[in-house]
Write a structure and sequence with these properties.
80% helix; ABC transporter involved in vitamin B12 uptake, BtuC
Length: 258
């Protein structure tokens, strides 16, 4: 396969990875600061449940109705978790875990009667990053641009509820671009790897995310395994190396990364 053909296949996937990295890195730093690491899994799974529910009701898989269902489900789940964090902060991680399990099993039940259910479930978890269409990338870029403007421009004003809303919107778009596993990895792994840095934490987190996507896609084209899991493993490996190089003993207090 020629290099030109390789690039024509991989560039939409790389752009999707860059877009997801752009939004998820700063949100991931904040998630670690708040100590709610598994919130993205829960909210992403709830968004996925919205997609499955829309498909179960007979809507077009990529149609507007399914997107609305996914966003509505994610917002409802995020606002519910915002409420539980205020009501029972000492058990918030447990509540997030239960929410994830409940949403995951509800999706499995809805897919049980679907002859393509296992394929839909795999797409939800692993994603189909190589088949992202340029049209979806344009829409995602517009949504992400608004979310980044809100986050970096209004973060001090939107409060806890605003954080959950921004988070839900970002995850809803991302899980349909790259799958739940890559959403979690991009959100948590670079932020975790750079937690020892006192300076340039956000920049290095972005670098690890971009390198993870680029290297994983390159390896996938060269060796032919599925790109999603390979990107997860590559980004995690690079982040682990960076984390070990920067020292695990001396860590700075978690900051907001801004």
């Amino acid at each position: 396969m020629s290099a030109a053909l390789d690039f024509s296949i991989v560039w939409p996937a790389l752009v999707a990875g860059l877009l997801v990295t752009a939004t998820h890195v700063p949100l991931g730093v904040q998630v670690l600061k708040r100590g709610i690491v598994f919130i993205d899994l829960a909210v992403a799974q709830i968004a996925g449940l919205g997609v499955v529910l829309g498909d179960w009701l007979g809507f077009e898989p990529q149609g507007g109705a399914v997107q609305i269902a996914a966003l509505a489900a994610a917002l409802a789940g995020a606002l519910l978790l915002n409420w539980t964090e205020q009501r029972w902060p000492e058990v918030q991680e447990a509540v997030i875990g239960v929410t994830f399990i409940l949403a995951a099993n509800a999706a499995i039940l809805l897919l049980a009667a679907n002859p393509h259910g296992s394929e839909h479930l795999k797409d939800l978890l692993v994603g189909q990053i190589l088949w992202v269409s340029p049209g979806r990338l344009v829409l995602a870029a517009l949504v992400y641009a608004v979310l980044l403007w809100v986050w970096f421009g209004l973060a001090e004003r939107i409060g806890r509820a605003g954080f959950y809303v921004v988070f839900a919107c970002a995850v809803t778009v991302s899980v349909q671009l790259v799958g739940l596993y890559l959403v979690f990895t991009t959100l948590i792994v670079p932020a975790l790897a750079t937690r020892a840095l006192r300076r340039y934490r956000l920049a290095m987190s972005y670098a690890l995310g971009v390198l993870g996507f680029a290297a994983g896609l390159a390896l996938s084209l060269a060796t032919d395994p599925p790109p999603g899991p390979l990107i997860v493993c590559t980004m995690t490996g690079l982040s682990l190396i960076f984390f070990l190089q920067t020292g695990t003993a001396k860590t700075s207090p978690p900051g907001n990364g801004r």
